[in-house]
Write a structure and sequence with these properties.
alpha+beta; peptide transmembrane transporter activity; transport; twelve-stranded mixed beta sheet; Dipeptide-binding Protein, domain 3; Peptide/nickel transport system substrate-binding protein; globular; SBP_5_dom; Peptide/Ni-bd
Length: 526
């Protein structure tokens, strides 16, 4: 059965864009200015990159530079503030970057090798709780050679290091404007990105204007962008309908997308574009729980879950079944869970349990967060409960808590089974395998698997050609299938809907699902 491609069911579950509005034209029809107003429910939590490991990246991508980044259409890091970057050894332990000439920050300070070293070093020195310092685990030290050369010395081979440098967390900041020891909190930004932050009102708006001194890969197709922040999706959609904003990203429900796709919306001049996303949803099983700790129980659940029904009923076709922890669009993606279990099969699930001596319905409690992944999370778990109980093999109790207390609970191992989501730091299969293993697994429970952590991942990190390590990642995914400590459910996709007067929507979202505001423009005539 064919289903429409995916999108999270609420603001926190997808990066969505809805573009509309009227062109700003002179009487002669010539373009006089290019200004775009974007609405979003994704307000930054900080303006300082050293504290940012969340949706703050979306503003930062547009006002800061990184040494390397992801130009539209690229899933591998390419030069931005750097003229070039490369590993200079065969073991991927020394990464060197040469800066572009003439770079400077918005306060006039020179952006040189010393500023790059300062920007990266302060992340580790501040060590902000919940910040991006954990991404620099393989970094030993940063060395400068003259004004334009930076060398990153790593403690071990790590071919993913360029991907880490490409994240907005590694944005370059002016040393004179940012303390080495604390987070900047004056509501201002001193960067070298495509735009300058002209003004910022927390919870209200950010005014961006074109940076006249910018030197980087971004081809800016507008002169200025206003980002308006909304608490909920309904007001942002209302603002769009009233032509108070031109665009929305992170602010539409699945119902809105379905309406637009079906041309049921009253704004008939809208068009919608779909691209592959990389965020995923999955179940986590607690190995210390008497029931969930039994691999037969986990395998039986894997045999019963009907992902097609889940995305059709709950997400109205705006989510895509996922059969691997590495989603579509990422190198190394497989369908390992489908290969192992095929279509949902109650008889097969019953046999799995019977072989383990389990003949009575298994009682389990499933937990989920009420305010993290959108309004469709509760219906999603209702559907999972229905599927498992209709087999006669399970009795499921559903419980939920707000994210903060929910997170405290799963990190203490209090939940037998719970739902999580993962928004990748960078588009590489490593970032969908490594975070789930080891003593610091993002699931909150240690998951020790030496073949992956001590053999397969170290092998892949020695190889800068990421396409050459697919066999190792395929093997890692097979191990995850055998253990079923995590069970992938679905992955998101990104949508850009636009009015006839707006262009660039299909190019505006990068592989990190971050909106590249510079791609949006008004057409000269429509």
């Amino acid at each position: 059965m064919f289903y429409r491609a995916s999108l999270q069911a609420a603001a926190a579950l997808a990066s969505l864009s809805l573009l509309a509005g009227c062109g700003l034209l002179s009487d002669s029809g010539s373009e006089v200015e290019q200004k775009i107003v974007v609405g979003t429910t994704s307000e930054p939590s900080t303006l300082d990159p050293a504290a940012a490991w969340d949706n703050s990246w979306e503003l930062m991508r547009n006002v800061f530079q990184t040494l390397v980044s992801f130009p539209t259409g690229s899933t591998t890091p390419e030069p931005d503030a750097a003229e070039w970057c490369k590993f200079t050894d065969t073991t991927s332990t020394s990464y060197r970057c040469k800066l572009r000439e003439g770079l400077k920050f918005s306060n006039g300070d020179k952006l040189d090798a010393a500023a790059v070293k300062y920007s990266i070093d302060r992340i580790s020195e501040i060590n902000f709780k919940g910040g991006p310092v954990g991404m620099l685990g393989s970094l030993d030290r940063v060395e400068t050679k003259g004004d334009d050369m930076v060398v990153f010395h790593l403690t071990k081979p790590d071919a993913t290091f360029p991907f880490i440098l490409a994240t907005p967390a590694m944005s370059l900041v002016a040393p004179s404007a940012y303390s080495r020891h604390k987070i900047r909190s004056d509501g201002k930004i001193t960067g070298s990105g495509p735009y300058l932050l002209d003004s910022y009102k927390p919870g209200k708006r950010a005014e961006l204007v074109k940076n006249p001194d910018y030197k980087g890969f971004a081809d800016r197709k507008n002169d200025a962008v206003t980002i308006r922040y909304f608490k909920e999706s309904a007001p942002v959609v209302a603002a769009l309908r009233k032509n108070q904003i031109d665009a929305i990203y992170r602010g539409l429900t699945a119902e809105e997308v379905v309406s637009l796709e079906g041309n049921q919306d009253k704004d008939s001049n809208l068009q919608i574009v779909e691209t592959v996303g990389a965020d995923i949803r999955f179940l986590v099983f607690n190995p210390k729980d008497p029931a969930a700790g039994n691999v037969a129980v986990r395998r039986a659940i894997a045999q019963l879950v009907d992902r097609d029904a889940l995305v059709a009923k709950v997400y109205q076709g705006t989510a895509e079944p996922l059969y691997s922890m590495v989603p579509k669009g990422i190198a190394g993606h497989t369908t390992s869970f489908f290969d192992a279990y095929g279509d949902p099969d109650q008889d097969e699930a019953k046999q799995i349990l019977a072989k383990a001596g389990i003949t009575k319905p298994v009682e389990l409690t499933f937990w989920f967060a009420t305010d993290r992944y959108g309004s469709s999370t509760a219906p999603e778990f209702d559907e999972l409960k229905r599927q498992l109980e209709s087999s006669g093999l399970f009795r499921i109790t559903l419980k939920s808590k707000p994210w903060k207390t929910f997170q405290e609970g799963f990190t203490k191992g209090q939940y037998p089974v719970f739902g999580r989501g993962w928004f990748p730091d960078f588009p590489d299969p490593d970032n969908f395998i490594a975070p789930f293993l080891g003593k610091d697994s993002i699931t909150g429970m240690p998951y020790m698997k030496n073949e992956i952590t001590k053999e397969l991942l170290p092998q892949t990190r020695k190889e800068s050609d990421r396409g050459a390590v697919s066999k190792q990642f395929e093997r890692a995914q097979k191990i995850l299938v055998d253990d079923v400590r995590v069970l992938p459910l679905w992955q998101g996709k990104l949508y850009v809907a636009s009015g006839e007067d707006i262009g660039g929507g299909e190019r505006a979202l990068d592989p990190q699902t971050v909106m590249q505001m510079w791609e949006l423009y008004r057409k000269a005539s429509w």
